[in-house]
Amino acid sequence: MAAGRDATETIVGFARTLRAAGGTADPERVQAMVAALDHLDVLDRADVYWAGRLTLCADPDDLPRYDRCFAAYFSGASPRPAPRPPVMAVRQAPVVVAEPVPEDGGGEEREVRAVTASGVEVLRHRDVARLGPEERRQVERLIAVLDATAERRRSRRFAPAPRGRLDPARTVRETLRRGGEISLLKHRAHRSRPRRVVLLVDVSGSMSPYADALLRFAHAAARSGGRNVEVFSAGTRLTRLTRELRHREPDAAMAAAAAAIPDWSGGTRLGEELKEFLDRFGQRGLARGAIVVIASDGWERGDAALLGEQMARLHRLAHRVVWANPHKARPGYEPLTAGMAAALPYIDDFTSGHSLGALEDLARLIGDPHA
Predict the structure, then answer these.
(1) How far apart are CA 371 and CA 360, in angstroms?
(2) Considering the entire predicted model, what is its pTM?
(3) Higher pLDDT pick, 261 / 371
(4) In whole angstroms, what separates CA 61 from the centre of its chain?
(5) Chain segment 112-126, per-residue pLDDT in tens
(6) Closest C-alpha to 323, from 263, 234, 238
(7) For residues 271, 272, 275 and 277, what is the CA-based torsion angle, rounded to 10 degrees?
(8) What is the gyration radius of the CA atoms in the chain, in angstroms?
(9) What is the pLDDT of residues 242-257, one digit of tens each?
(10) Mind listing the pLDDT tens digit for each residue in 1-26?
């Protein structure tokens, strides 16, 4: 059965999700999957799964990422390919993935979750503050598979390399191994490692519609970056959430973070919290050379001049300062609040972070300053 227009749009949307999670689903691989489905049954979930796995995955590291994205995009459950897999159902034109019905026929038929290319694309750009419960759960699943790996920096340590500086020690050892004959010069080059990422998430009352999604993004960043990621909440108090967000399961991590935050939906004193962060952790190297992401609407109830002073101090320490303001996406927005006006001169990248698509852009921005 040939893959129609709606199926093609669904595949393109899935490939975009896979790329956002760090996969290598380039246009040529997407075309290969569409061509494969021309010879398969697009209503057979196993055919769709294996067609994508064999065309969109470039190396073994892509396989677990592909499984997570396939589950999140199509059904919200971990795919378990079996000799007799569940099938997809079609409602009107779009491609739909159906939950398996129990073989014993007992109980009511499970609800079918329809995921279409147009629906997912609209959801990607919807403001998270305006999502319904089911839409929010779907967005949360997609946030959980985001890859927010930071850009790499040069390390002081060296590693063997085909070209670069001459490596005298390895060259001498190779010469002695060959009986004193110099036949091949060995080289070395600086290793690279991901930059540290520090996320400060405003959990004040004015940010309450977005704080949950931004903390889930921080959890995805912590999962991607491991020990190179530090997370703090800011409101009336500064709270370190790095340990709480180490939980593998997003819901468990969010529950632990909620229990640790004493000032959820309180006031905002960004200047004081930023000063405390720099006093306590800046001297320990957390901010030095790091990518610092501040997620806040900039409604400063404290001294805006203090916020400006601390932003200047942060800008001198950090490699890049990124500010994500959910209100930036609103038509006619201008950073006129006292807090934003004080911070803006010291911001390298100003983005929104109000939707799934904006969080995908933020993840790419962390990984590539030229994204």
Answers:
(1) 11
(2) 0.64
(3) 261
(4) 17
(5) 344 444 566 778 889
(6) 234
(7) -110
(8) 24
(9) 999 988 899 999 999 9
(10) 444 667 788 888 888 888 888 777 88
Whether residue 167 is predicted with pLDDT greater than 70 in this model: the reply is yes
Per-residue pLDDT of 44-67, as tens digits, reads 888 888 888 888 887 777 888 888
Q: What is the pLDDT of residue 357?
A: 92
Task: Tell me the C-alpha distance between 328 and 120, whole Å.
Answer: 22
Joined tokens for residue 236: 């009336």
Sorted by sequence, the CB contacts under 8 Å of residue 344 that are 6+ apart come out as: 323, 335, 350
